[in-house]
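User: C-alpha cells for this complex, please. No commentary.
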Amino acid sequence: MNKAFNATRGERAFDVVNILIMLLLVVVTLYPFLNVLAISLNNSQDTVRGGIGLWPRQFTLENYKVIFAYEGLLQGFKVSILRTVVGTVLGLLSASMLAFTLSRADFQARRFVSVFLALTMYFSGGLIPVYILMRDLHLIGTFWVYVLPGMVGAFNVFVIRSFIDGLPFALQESAKLDGANDFTIYWRIILPLAKPALATIALFLAVGQWNAFLDTYLYNGSSETWTTLQYELMKVLQSTQQGGANMRTSNEDMTKLMNQVSPESIKMAITIVVTVPILAVYPFLQRYFVGGMTLGAVKA
Amino acid sequence: MELVKALTEKHPAAGPDGAALAASSGPARFWKVMKSQKYLYFMSMPFVIWVFVFSYMPLWGWTMAFQDFKAGKTFGEQKWVGFKHFQELFTDERFYLVLRNTLAMSLMGLIVGFVVPILFAVLLNEVKGRLFKRTVQTISYLPHFVSWVVVAGIVTKMLSTDSGAVNNLLMWLHITDEPIQFMAKGNWFWSIVTASDLWKELGWSAIIYLAAIAGIDPELYEASRVDGANRLRQMWHITLPGIRTTISVLLIMSIGHLISIGFEKQFLLGNNLVKDYSEVLDLYALNYGLSLARFSFGTAIGIFNSVVSIFLLFLANGVLKKVTKESIM
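Assistant:
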C-alpha cells in the first residue's frame, strides 16, 4: 500500500494545519531578530519614521561605526571574550577531572564526593549570603568573580560522567598494565574519547559566560575595567526605558553616544553585536548538545 | 533520596586496584588504597574544597537572618535577635504583594512552560519532511542561546507603542485602534513575562520530550494504524503515554523550583510603573536587603524562599507518587 493512497482527507488536513503551526512558530521566532537586524542597518533618522520590517530602507553602517567608537563597549567586549575563554577552560577541566574520578567504581571517596556534589543541585545559599561571601573572599571588583564561583557545576560533572561510564573500561585497564598512572589515563585516554560530552558542556559553559550580566551588576557594577558586553547592553537598553530606571547607573559617555544617532538604532546595533557570536556557533554544535541534554535528563 | 542514589551509583565494575587489594582489610587497607589512588584524590579533592567554599559556605550565612548583622563586626560580635527579621517580614504588607507576584508568575510559567513544549514536541514529531523538521527544530532552539538582556530588549521593542510589531499587527487587524501600552500597565506584566519565557525556552524544553518520543517502539504506531486509529488518536493513546515518565519527573522538578524562579526577567522587563506586579521575592531581597545594606532582612527573605521550595518539592513528589507511581526521591 503506498502512502498517498493511505492518507485520508482528514490526515491531509492534519498535515497542512500542523505545517502551518510550525511555520507560524518559525516566523514568531525569527521575525524579532530580523527586525532588529534591519533597524540596526537602517539610517537612524529614517528609522524614527517607523515601518521598518525585515529589510533596511536606507542602508547604512553608521550605527555600528558609532558604537564601536564607544570605549565602554570595546572594554566590555574584551572582558566578555576573556571570561568566556577562561570560564569555559576552567569549567571544562574541573568538570571532566571530577567526572573521571566519579566514573571509577574502585575510587574510595567516590560515594562521598558524588553525594556532596549532587546536593548542591537542590539548595543555594541565596543572594545575600553569597554576596557576603564574595566580599569576604575579596572577589568583588575583580575578574575572578566571573569564573571562580561557578567553576564546578554538578550538572556538568554528571553529564560527563554518564558519558565516561559508557566507554569500555578495558581501555583503562590496558593503559594501567602499560604503566600509566590515573592522571595519564585521564589526560591521554578519557579526554580525547569524551569529546562529544565535552563539546556539549563547553557550549553550555561558554553560553552561560557570554550571556551573564547579573554578576557584573552585583559585583562589578561600578568597575570600568571589568564591565561586560551584556552589562553595557543592559545599561543602554534601560537608560531610556519608560518609567525610568530603578537603581540603574548611567554615564555621560553613553548619553553622548545615544544622541549621536538615535537611542533606538544604538540599542539595536548593540543587540546584534552581543547576539551574533552565539548564533554563529550554535547550529554547528547542535548534534552535540541534543545528545548532551538527553544524557543529562536520563540521570537528573 | 533515590535521585541522589541514582546519580551516585554506577554499574559495578571492578577497578584496576580492586581485586589486588581485596585480600587485606582494616585501616591499613584504607591507607594503602588511598595511596594507590593518590592521583584520583589529587584530581577530586581540590574541587570538593571548592564546592564547599562556594556552595556550602553561603549556608553559614543563613545565621545572619537571626542576627542584627553589621558588616564590620566579626561573627562573635554580632547581636543575636531570634526571629525578629522574620516577624518584620511577615508583617510587611509589601511582602504579601511580592509573594502574590512570585506565585502568580511561577504558576503561569509552570503551566504554560510545561504544556506548550510537550504539545510542540508531539506535533513536531508528526511532521513528515525530515529536512523541514530539522530546520524547525534548529530555529526553535535559537532564542535559548540568547541572553535575557537581549530578549528583554527585543520584547520591549516588539511591544513598544512606537511602531512595535505587536501593536502594528493588532492595529492592522483592527483589534485595537490605539497602541496598547504593554510595558507601562501592570496588569500586562505577568503575561509578558510568561510569554517571553515561553518564546525563549519552547524549543529547548522540547528536546527532552522529542528524545523520549524517539524511544517509543514504532510497532505500536503500526499496530494502531492497522486498528484504524487516526493521527490524533495515536498522539493521545501512544505518544503521550509513551513519554509519561519523562513528563512526571520534569513536572516534579519544575514544581520544586516553583518559587525560586530567579529574577532576571522581572529585573530586566520591569520598571517603576509596573513595580507592584513585577517585584518577586529575590528582587525584593535585592531592593530591600542588599541595596539598603539590610543584610539580615534580605537573608530572611532568602531562607523563606528556600523553605517554601523544599516544601513544594516534597508535596509535588508525594502527590505524583500517589497519582502516577513516579517519584524522584
